[in-house]
Amino acid sequence: MVLGKTFRDESTLPDDFRHAFAAYLENPSASSTTNARLSEVLRRYDPPGLTSPLSELEENAFFVIPGGRVFRKGKKMRTRYRCECLNNKRIYLFSPLAEILPVDEPGRTGSQT
Description:
Layout: H1 2-9, H2 15-26, H3 36-43, E1 52-53, E2 62-64, E3 70-76, E4 81-85, E5 91-94, E6 99-103
Antiparallel strand pairs: 1-6, 2-3, 2-6, 3-4, 4-5
Helix pairs in contact: 1-2, 2-3
């Protein structure tokens, strides 16, 4: 991984990124988004937005995904959260890294009061 070594040794990059990236390069997967530590570090450098990772949402809270379906967050199984779709009552498993839009209650988006 010569290309990766170049980025890992670059002194202009933040330390937290270099350490997470070095750990990722020891056993890289097909996608950097499957590595929770690296994804968390990269998210710190994203501009603030309306979405957040599912892992930051409390259990039984509601959220919407980009397609417009509304879900209730359930318990974490092993690596994924068991969530109920309120549109069709089916159960779906979500990665803790899934970008979601939290809602106060079904039908209301954002943190309105």
